[in-house]
From TrEMBL:
Co-factor binding details: Binds 1 zinc ion per subunit.
Highest taxon in the source lineage: Bacteria
NCBIfam families recorded: ribosome small subunit-dependent GTPase A (TIGR00157)
Location (main, coarse): cytoplasm
Domain CP-type G stretches: 156-314
The organism of origin for this protein: Crateriforma conspicua
EC numbers: 3.6.1.-
Name of this protein: Small ribosomal subunit biogenesis GTPase RsgA
Subunit relationships: Monomer. Associates with 30S ribosomal subunit, binds 16S rRNA.
Gene Ontology biological-process annotations: ribosomal small subunit biogenesis
UniProt: Zn(2+) binding residues: C338, C343, H345, C351
Role of this protein: One of several proteins that assist in the late maturation steps of the functional core of the 30S ribosomal subunit. Helps release RbfA from mature subunits. May play a role in the assembly of ribosomal proteins into the subunit. Circularly permuted GTPase that catalyzes slow GTP hydrolysis, GTPase activity is stimulated by the 30S ribosomal subunit.
Family under the similarity heading: Belongs to the TRAFAC class YlqF/YawG GTPase family. RsgA subfamily.
Length: 381
């Protein structure tokens, strides 16, 4: 769009909404993916009279498509031309989208949409549902981003960076052997999922290598906390059907250390994918990081799996030592009964968490992993 025209559009937009929603507020709500609240803000107080309602509709496109009512939209005159799609990847200015019409589009993002965000890299992220205008059978322009839910994000320097949007599950893949089971790592992934408020599913893979009864007690501990767990084998396809059923129509992020069998599981869930599978080398028992590029893999039944190396090994982002207990469902019932409100459940006296560990209401291994996490990573050395 010519710069002049863009500036005018932008000025018009701001003028229309002056006094209703502050620019910074719009930007913040948009950036944090909080578009329900963005739409609320546009619709809310001070919208009086018919004129205002008309203006509201120009912004959110509520007239033409009720699904879009809460989304951010800046220009919709002929909505029937728009195609709904899902963002597969974002490479610089190019956004790859799979349209609901089955076509793959390489898209740009409408300039005015970008101008609402101060950090343009995150206007659109993988997993976003968008409305696009096809400009050719392969090219399109993203006109709006539909409301996000289940956002996986990290905060750096006080700013939230959304990594993927519309995530229903974090699939935590662990292997019960080769590489050996590392429950402390599962605990960390669970914390990240809790921080992002995304439901985790713990998948114990390679169950063909051991007697599954051996790990049943540990699986039971997680299940008793309310986590969904599944013991599977990508090798023998044991329990792959229930896993596939769980993922039908859902978007999931894969997490788990190298070599646990993430690619092998994906190949089983979605036959025909043909993802490269690596060997676990005997010397380091760690796998070889076969997967290098980010991808969103659409699955049958309308779902998708995000397989992003950065997320596979995702770490704890900006978590404070005193928040950890509250994010653990087995600790949570006790934390408010500790004598000190800022109790870290380590060396303090009259600690309800430690009492619960002492009489086995909290699993001792979980508590041990908690102490290690705090002492090694979260507290000053
Ligand atoms: N015995 C057995 N081996 C498995 C199973 N699943 C995967 N493997 C093997 O484990 C090795 C690693 O599998 P991948 O699927 O490449 O693991 P990954 O987690 O994707 O690894 P990265 O790409 O490095 O993150 C391969 O040799 C697989 O054949 C299983 O259920 N049982
Ligand atoms: Zn305590």
């Amino acid at each position: 769009m010519p710069k002049k025209k863009h500036n005018k559009l932008r000025a018009d937009f701001r003028k229309k909404h002056q006094g209703r929603v502050r620019d910074s507020d719009l930007t913040r709500r948009f950036q944090t993916g909080d578009q329900d609240s963005l739409a609320d803000a546009v619709q809310s107080e001070r919208l009086t009279g018919k004129g205002d309602l008309t203006r509201k509709r120009t912004v959110i496109g509520a007239d033409s498509n009720p699904d879009q009512a809460a989304g951010l939209n800046v220009k919709l005159d002929t909505d029937s031309d728009l195609i709904r799609g899902r963002v597969v990847s974002v490479h610089g200015l190019k956004v790859r989208v799979i349209g609901d019409d089955g076509r793959r589009y390489e898209c740009a993002v409408r300039q005015l949409l970008k101008s609402l965000s101060t950090d343009q890299r995150h206007v659109v992220v993988a997993g976003d549902r968008v409305m696009l205008r096809a400009e050719s059978p392969q090219d399109g322009m993203i006109e709006s981003v539909l409301p996000r839910r289940g956002v996986l994000s990290r905060t750096s320097r006080g700013k939230q960076h959304v990594i993927v949007a519309n995530v229903d599950y974090v699939l935590i893949i662990a292997s019960v052997a080769r590489p050996s089971l590392k429950p402390a790592l599962i605990d960390r992934f669970l914390l990240t999922a809790a921080q992002c408020e995304i439901q985790p599913i713990i998948v114990f893979n390679k169950c063909d290598l051991i007697d599954p009864m051996r790990i049943q007690p540990m699986v039971g501990v997680y299940a008793s906390m309310g986590y969904r767990t599944l013991m599977v084998s990508a090798e023998t396809e044991w329990n792959i059907d229930p896993l596939r059923a769980l993922l039908t129509g859902k978007q999931a992020v894969l997490a788990g250390q190298s070599g646990v069998g993430k690619s092998s599981l994906l190949n089983r869930i979605q036959p025909g994918l043909g993802l490269a599978v690596g060997e676990v080398s005997d010397d380091n028992d760690k796998g070889r990081h076969t997967t290098t590029a980010s991808r969103l893999i659409p699955t049958d039944g309308g779902g998708a799996v995000f397989d992003t190396p950065g997320i596979r090994q995702f770490q704890l982002w900006n978590i404070e030592a005193n928040e950890v207990g509250g994010l653990m469902p087995d600790f949570r019932p006790y934390v408010s009964s500790c004598r000190y409100p800022d109790c870290l459940h380590l060396t303090e006296t009259d600690c309800a968490v430690k009492d619960a560990v002492a009489d086995a209401r909290i699993d001792a291994r979980r508590y041990d992993a908690y102490c290690h996490l705090l002492e090694e990573d979260l507290l000053p050395q």
